[in-house]
User: What shape does this take?
Amino acid sequence: MRQILHSFLGVALLLMSFSFIGCNHNAFNFSQLDEIDANGDWGFPLLNAEYTIGDILEMSDNVGYLQQGSDGTLEIRYEYTFDSVISASEYLDSYIDNDISVEGTKTLSLGDLPPVQGNVQVLYKDTLTTQFPTDMVLLESASLKSGQIQLQVTYNLTQPTMIDVTCPQLTSASGQPFHVQAQSSGGSYTTTLDLSGYSLTVPSDNKIDFFMEVSCDANIGSLPNQLTFNYRAAFSQVSFSEIRGKFVAVNLPVDKEWDFDSEFLRDHISGSMTLLNPQVTCEILNTFPVRGNVVLNQAQLSGGGTSSSLLAYSPATVEIPGSTQQFVPVNLPITSSLMLSPNFDHFKLKGNATINPDGFSTPTLVLRDDQVISMRFCVVLPLEMNMDDISFRDTIPFGGLSLPNESAFSNMLLRMGLTNGLPLNFQLQAYFYDSQTGTVKDSLFTEPQTVLSALNGTPRFSEVYATKESYQEVQRMLSCDNIILEARLYTDGTSISINVAQAIRIQLGARMNVDLNSLVNN
Amino acid sequence: MRKIIFTLFMWGCFCFSVSGQALDVTHFMRISPFQHNDLPSSSTIYNGYVSLPTGNIQVGVNLGSIRYKNLFATNEEGYPTVLTATTFVNSLSDKNYLGVNADLEIFGIGFRIKDKFFLTVDHRLRTNLDFTYSRDVLGLPIYGNMAYVDEPADLKLGINLNAYQELGVSFRHQVNDKISWGVRPKLLFGVANINTQYLNAQVYTDPTDYTITMTYAALMRAAAVVPFTMTFNQQDGFNFEIDNDAKKIAGNVFKNVGFGLDMGFSYKLMESLNLSAGLLDFGFINWNTSTTRMTSSLDDDGSVYQDGSFTFSGLSQSQIEALMNGEGYEELLDTLAQYFPMDIAPTGSYTTGLTPRLVLQADYEFAKHHRVSAATQFRFAKNYFQPSLTLAYDGLFFNSIDVCVAYTMQRHSYDNLGIGVGFNLGYLNIYAGTQNIIAALSVKNVSQLTATAGIVFNWGHYDNWRKKNPKQ
Assistant: This one.
């Protein structure tokens, strides 16, 4: 009995031992467990966003010239003001020869001297008349901004004399007539006087009279038998702040230009387009009290070796009204279509301006040196256009984007659903560019992918795919630091209009196989 | 001898593992006085017994569809080297189960009253964990979401943890030579509970644009005699505190009151053929201490919420801009998190049911002390129906050595060959068993790990008593 019991216990113990062995078998030693067999198929939506042209404009830097028109049409707008295309300060003086003078010699014998009055013996007394030319202006009056008058008298007398020069037509700022009185000795007198602030009144013929008298003490002693006086009165460096009178018509050249920012278009767009309704408004501010006109020979955009005229015809005459207190629009014959190159960065205006075209028949005018003619141009180019082939190109920094472990990813599929509300077809491609080596290492799509334009204003959906089968391809792609995005833009041959409300909805999703083992272990 | 027995017992406790989701092999061992645990109308061979904390210990893990061989690939030396996640998920069923149970009889006493009655009083500590999960819970992270473009990934989790004290009084009545019945009302005192009312999510991925659509709802409740507070909200975050005050814990021990009932009926169809039926663990527990409720459901918090679903079709323009400005990543996560608000807060009392079982059993004694049994158990776990069939042979040798061999088949588990051994050493009865001895030999096929063991003091072998008292 005892033996049987022991035998049975032995068998039972053996069976139990199996379980003990099983529990502590290598099967539960996980020290060599270092691999996971799991390769999942994952798909994620990444982006589902609608971007209007307006949104894109807001996101873009330095494209302030791309703006929204009143009807929402996207337009290129260049504005520039040519201040002081014609400035009175630059040419007012040109009306008048500012270096006029009068000079001469007078010889007197003692017998010709007038009688002594009291103790004064007048030796010489005369009126010196000088004259501004009358071919440009018939002066009535003028205000001198600056200028000098030099008075010079020499004579053959050594005794002290008194020099007295007056000019009633010249009055100082305080209203005092021009008057110089000085003692002289040694036979000469020279003085130079500043005429700044003086006013000039000219009764007729642009003439100015100076009255000069040379006298001495009656008891001065013996005088030479013949007295000889050399005199000179000369205006120099005269400039006017105001001239009242009648003027001849003045022709002045207009040659103005400006460079504008076109970096975005130049850097991203190639090809050209024909804009159908370019609009150019010209406004003129003319503070001259007289009308004028500008004959424009050139008003054009240029750059990159090409140019495009804004004028419907040339030369084009622009009438300038007189005495405008603010910019007023003037008519400018504008071309109905304009070839626009993305390289345009220059605006040039060239022609001739005529001020006071009626000349002396115009009533008396008052011209001041602060009077100007300024021109303001606003070139508005709505993107209503015909285009054949435009290419868009942009380089987007790509650094910093990385997957946690590229080797874990394979069969990558990038899916893009584009609902295109733009009237433009696209052919899209993206290149992965390594700036270190200067090489394009890969492209996103095997071939450029087509995105169809909206049809009769209704957005159309297109779907494009990019595949990267191996992780090496992904690795190569991610090793680049730039993406060069290229899009060929083309229409179906019809005219199109780009509106800021037009939108493109982008649904971006990625699908890939994820090897959990690589993801965890590497 | 004692050392051998003790060693055997300890191995039974710690090396074997066990199950409670099918009838245990010791249930069929006539030397065990605990047959009434699974069938209250069952008789015992003793006139009485006393069970101390070592009297009946059951521990079991039911892995359901989980198999080692599907989970790991091993090298020639048997070391696991590869976690074969895809193979593993492929092997799962649509709906899967993981169960853990542990029963400990703290004290029990049973004795015969005259010839027809047997009364048992016992106090047990029972713990059941039923964890259900859909295959897609693991399939989604392993297969990837693009594997669910025809049908949505159906993510369902169910947790039902019950730990409670059971104070039962079992009464068996032998009506006549053919009929007997038994009933065991049980007073229950809950110790801890975690249960999900629902924890469901469905994830669908559009095969064209990969738009991910998700529906989601969760309601969980928890309670314990150990005072704790657990709160969570979006503003204050998660907070968990336990109060270790022994007085408070002691004061809570009898506050989660419940009631349960086991009942059974046996009919001797022939002299050697006995038919039995039992309804077990029919009852409830009302939880009152530290009751906590966690709710979470999809919230309409913005554009991603569409028609009751979380529909993510990609980052929006403003989100992209925020990310590009370097200011949006955390905000984006916060924004997305707002669609899944979770609220954990104390709640009022609630009631949970036990996990009822229905047992149908036939025993055929083809020779004296040798019988075969066929038993089915239908276990009605929450959200998971668990049928099982056990075929068992039990032989009593030398009136002292009990050997039982049982084969059990369950859903996803058909290789459970169990063995139980018991010794009646006079007033001492020692037994141990496992439901799956094959597991010990081939660990890669294990679906169940169970162990049952015990030492019981008994007196008065009934058969001998009958011989000596034929008139009664």
About this structure: Confidence is low (pLDDT under 50) at residues 1-24 of chain A.
